[in-house]
Amino acid sequence: MKQSLSDNFFPTLSLSTPDFRITLNKRGASEYTKISFPLKYGIYSEIETKDAVLQFNLNNEIVRAKGKDKKWIQPSEWLKRSMGNDWIYYSTGGYTGVFEATGEYYLPNLQYPTNSLIGGKPFKEASVARIVSSWHEIIKDVMISVKKDTSKTTNESEKREIFIRFLEKALLNTPERLENKAQNLFEVSDGRITVMPPDARHVDYDIIPLTISEGCLYKCRFCRIKTDKPFSIKSKEKIKEKIEILKKLYGKDIVNYNSIFLGDHDALNAGKETILSAAATAHEAFGFKDAFMKGSSLFMFGSVDSLMEREGTVNDAKALLDDLNRLPFCTYINIGLESSDQETLDFLGKPITSKQVEETFLYIQHINATYPNIEITANFIMDENLPDGHYPAFLNLVREKIARTKTKGTVYLSPLRINKPSREVLFEFNRLKTLSRVPTFLYIIQRL
Ligand code: SF4
């Protein structure tokens, strides 16, 4: 049984002095919303000092932070720490086109190489580096102040004890311990999640990763994340075991989650029975029905063959869709189409035909129009050095083959090169987006 979310379970309490304020169990937003104001989600605790704000999840692990000093880049920007223990800087970009380019008001700036075309280098700023490297010291300083402040009445000293206990637990979650926890997450996921589905942006990438299969069908030449291993499916027992381990890892903070990512690169090919049973078991075990965060989402990757049921695969995707649509999830399936130009597919070393891509794209339109709780999205590649037919073929699909502008069925354009922001590619993106009749955004590769 999930814990009750009543105030008795996570009561909000606060302690203020002229130098700091601690608030336990603050209520943030309980629904993911696209808004230009910096919303914080879930139930969290907060330490605010004269020059920093630190926020902690219900396991007393730091999850967000920002500086309050004059050098902090922008008061509405902040740092988020992922379950994979990466710090991510959320910027407004100083770039007016962030929402148009990504579909989100804040741009995640990452510390590792990625394919982003926009954003700056916030981690090189001293004010940002100070928080990333010294948040643990800030907690220590606050602990010293709380201990010094010896109150006279029993009530006050009992209250002080509650805050000391919180600080003690937060201090136990050292950078090393958080890194170890991330390693445990990678272990249960059979390796790090090197790329999250682009649709996970709808829940600010707050997903619990449940690996139900490994590998993919194609082993495309251009792909950096592929493994040599043949595609394989995890047994029901293995998946149940993973769910139990994940439940323990996410601990008390699981009430702040309501979404899963079925991994890894082609979970759709795992077949109806595996997918439905994994989704239902996870929903029940993680207590999503009673979570603080409302509206469950299910994310996975698929492929042309797993969606179109290539003969000889285990797949039964068409039969799966009716059942998926009835699940207590909004399901997002992201399909890597890459190009509808044969020369480009050959150039990329993707072993499918342009005819298959076109058929799949049209079938995706049908699914999106038929199932209210399912959205199939697609990825296409962008680069300066692709064959000339790539962009005309893309426009033929997203403009000529679609009679009216649509609000569902996002197409993501993914720059091929890592750490090579290019004005030309950004310019091309804006041109394609303007002409496309489906929502069209950049895909910034992000790991968990
Ligand atoms: S692009 Fe997708 S299908 Fe191709 S090798 Fe990479 S993971 Fe596999």
From TrEMBL:
Keywords: Iron, Iron-sulfur, Metal-binding, S-adenosyl-L-methionine. GO terms for molecular function: catalytic activity; iron-sulfur cluster binding; metal ion binding. The keyword Transport does not apply. Its cofactor is [4Fe-4S] cluster. InterPro entries: BchE-like, Elp3/MiaA/NifB-like_rSAM, rSAM, rSAM_horseshoe, rSAM_sf. Residues 202-448 form the Radical SAM core domain. It comes from the Bacteria. PROSITE patterns: RADICAL_SAM (PS51918). The keyword ATP-binding does not apply. This is Radical SAM core domain-containing protein. It comes from Desulfamplus magnetovallimortis.
